[in-house]
Write a structure and sequence with these properties.
The complex is a heterodimer of chains A (about 80) and B (about 140).
Chain A: H1 3-15, H2 40-54, H3 60-63, H4 69-80
Helix pairs in contact in A: 1-2, 1-4
Chain B: H1 3-9, E1 21-26, E2 29-35, H2 55-75, H3 78-81, E3 85-95, E4 104-115, E5 118-126, E6 132-143
Antiparallel strand pairs in B: 1-2, 2-4, 3-6, 4-5, 5-6
The chains are: A mainly alpha (about 80), B alpha+beta (about 140).
């Protein structure tokens, strides 16, 4: 896992966390919807911020695969290669 | 898709339909109108002696025209639209002027993005005099 990407992703996710979840609750295995309580609308904004930050384009079929922090990082790494 | 067709596909009916007519619509945005009916249920309680359109109802009108009508136009697929479900997910709005019973309002919505079935728009609602009564940023998700 690329720690630079991980930190960047955490910084994006934290903007969209509900008030009862903090950045310290995020770990690589965190499920964005089920564990970090991010709703599907905010998930879209996370993906759009990720696109801007990493200068990549995520396809409609790929957003569903970005269910955990680790899986999101995997797709980011794939896109950057 | 025509304005009438779009309105017929809306998942609302009386007493919670706040769209009368679509004036113009394209891939960048929509303009629509609605006249608040004097006998609408919410005027009986908002306020007790002084009927004013509640901010939440103005927001609903902005969302129905600015998000849902526009979303239907952008999806533009009758098969998909048959089972359309919508969820209002975000509103950041200012309320500048009151809207009274019987007033005709115009809602103009400009698209910010429509990605991954989420539509985000900048929406203004102007009163009969052409003054901005409410403006803000609204988003919703479409389940198709």
């Amino acid at each position: 896992m690329n720690s630079e990407h991980y930190e960047a992703l955490k910084n994006v996710i934290k903007i969209y966390l509900p008030t009862d979840v903090t950045i310290d609750d995020i770990n690589p295995n965190s499920h964005l919807i089920n564990e970090l309580n991010i709703n599907s609308a905010n998930l879209v904004d996370i993906v759009l911020d990720v696109e801007d930050h990493f200068d990549i384009t995520i396809e409609d079929s790929e957003i569903e695969k970005m269910d955990t922090v680790a899986n999101a990082l995997e797709i980011i790494a794939l896109k950057l290669n | 898709m025509s304005g009438e067709e779009i309105i017929s596909l809306l998942p609302y009916k009386e007493p919670f339909l706040f769209v009368d007519e679509i004036i113009r619509i394209n891939n960048r945005g929509v303009e629509g109108v609605y006249t608040f009916q004097k006998e609408s249920f919410f005027y009986k309680g908002h306020f007790k002696e002084y009927p004013v359109t509640p901010g939440v109802i103005l927001t609903e009108c902005m969302a129905q025209i600015g998000l849902v009508c526009l979303g239907i136009y952008l999806i533009n697929d009758l098969e998909k639209l048959k089972g359309l479900k919508v969820a209002f997910t975000n509103a950041t709005t200012d309320y500048i002027k009151p809207v009274f019973p019987g007033e005709k309002v115009t809602v103009v919505s400009d698209i910010e993005y429509f990605r991954f079935n989420k539509l985000k728009c900048n929406v203004t609602l102007t009163n009969e005099n052409g003054d901005v009564a409410s403006e803000g940023t609204l988003s919703g998700m479409f389940s198709i």
